[in-house]
Design the sequence.
């Protein structure tokens, strides 16, 4: 390891409670900057720097590279907290903040390439397998245009998905993540959406970039938990299946955003009196029942999230195998979160009458952002439900990202 990056000493690592306090302290500023992020289609630099200074991007990073090496539950608690004020901020933290975990699975030379200069280096991504790959001596040549690279304007490296051509006819598909420095790609502003605008998920373009072999990560290694990085990052955390950590990074912000929507809803309901019927919302049984339903389901989703990772970490710590059925179940449960949250927020809107539909309404941004998150492929339960059902009937799944 480069001497410029010291092993993170335990006394320098904040507690989970301290990280949550830091996240909670940021909420007023995030609310104040939400309109700016939406207008500019990117997070304000100040927001990214405050998250960096708070240590949020280091939560899943190895201690040997200056990280905190904490349980995923801590990371997701911080993400949900930030989402109560700004889902775009929480989404960027989820995506960019989970990348130190994946980098820890790469060959250690790739980790040194990124972190030897600074443990605070950030990586964006787009895992769409749209790139063109050519095998060359020592690695690959990569070209293509990838969309949906959240937070890319604030990052110095990128993970890009592509399929490596098979060496022999009949060889299995070799899906990989390619790691490239900022000098090897161009960011093209193309993000103009109805929701999650502040994520700045612009396009990334690569023209015949060289990627050495050690800067690639095989999807098969992520599935089988045979990642080269596990030889140096030996904590049980890094024995988790990569997909289990990633899919929650793109669904969990919706839970916090639903809490933010509920808070906005309650603020309106406390004062609302219908101009047509004279009905007082704060005493209306339907309005009160809706608040109770949403609050209870937020708690259920949080409890399930924590319980799943408790079981996952418990098994890998004990050296017990993870069954395919439970891995598919956890991935399916993650995929249901965003549609479920969208339904909950949507159920609140009609109870607020005309006040809810103005762009100035405190609930409207949460509604738009949660619905935009449904577009992510990992947030569609139909993509994994048939595999889970098939395994329950004794079959084999077609998808191995779980």
Sequence:
């Amino acid at each position: 390891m480069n001497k410029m990056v010291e092993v993170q000493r335990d006394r320098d690592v904040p507690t989970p409670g301290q990280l949550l306090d830091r996240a909670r302290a940021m909420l007023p500023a995030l609310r104040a900057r939400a309109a700016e992020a939406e207008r500019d289609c990117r997070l304000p630099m100040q927001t990214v720097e405050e998250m960096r200074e708070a240590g949020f991007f280091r939560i899943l990073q190895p201690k040997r590279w200056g990280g905190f090496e904490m349980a995923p539950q801590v990371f997701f608690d911080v993400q949900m907290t930030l989402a109560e004020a700004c889902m775009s901020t929480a989404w960027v933290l989820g995506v960019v903040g989970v990348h130190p975990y994946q980098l820890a699975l790469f060959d250690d030379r790739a980790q040194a390439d990124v972190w030897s200069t600074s443990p605070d280096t950030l990586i964006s991504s787009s895992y769409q397998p749209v790139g063109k790959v050519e095998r060359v001596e020592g690695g690959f040549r990569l070209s293509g245009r990838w969309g949906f690279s959240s937070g890319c304007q604030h990052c110095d490296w990128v993970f890009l998905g592509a399929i490596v051509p098979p060496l022999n006819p009949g060889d299995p598909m070799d899906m990989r993540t390619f790691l490239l420095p900022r000098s090897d790609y161009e960011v093209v502003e193309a993000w103009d959406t109805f929701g999650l605008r502040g994520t700045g998920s612009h396009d990334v373009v690569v023209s015949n970039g060289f990627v050495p072999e050690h800067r690639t990560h095989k999807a098969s290694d992520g599935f089988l938990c045979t990642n080269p990085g596990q030889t140096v990052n030996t904590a049980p955390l890094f024995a988790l299946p990569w997909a289990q950590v990633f899919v929650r990074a793109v669904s969990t912000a919706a839970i916090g955003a639903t809490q933010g929507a509920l808070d906005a809803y309650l603020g309106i309901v406390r004062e609302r009196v219908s101009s047509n019927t004279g009905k007082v919302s704060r005493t209306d049984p339907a309005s009160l029942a809706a608040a109770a339903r949403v609050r209870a389901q937020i708690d259920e989703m949080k409890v399930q999230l924590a319980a799943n990772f408790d079981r996952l970490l418990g098994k890998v710590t004990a050296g017990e195998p993870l069954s395919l059925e439970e891995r598919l179940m956890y991935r399916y449960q993650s995929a249901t979160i965003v549609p479920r949250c969208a339904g909950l927020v949507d159920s609140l809107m009609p109870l607020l009458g005309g006040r809810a539909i103005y762009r100035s309404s405190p609930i409207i941004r949460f509604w738009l952002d949660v619905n935009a998150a449904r577009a992510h492929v990992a947030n569609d339960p139909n993509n994994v439900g048939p595999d889970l059902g098939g395994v329950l009937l004794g079959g084999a799944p077609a998808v191995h990202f779980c």
Remarks:
- The domain at 240-393 is CATH 1.20.140.10 (Butyryl-CoA Dehydrogenase, subunit A; domain 3).
- The longest strand covers residues 123-136.
- The chain has three domains: 16-116, 123-218, 240-393.
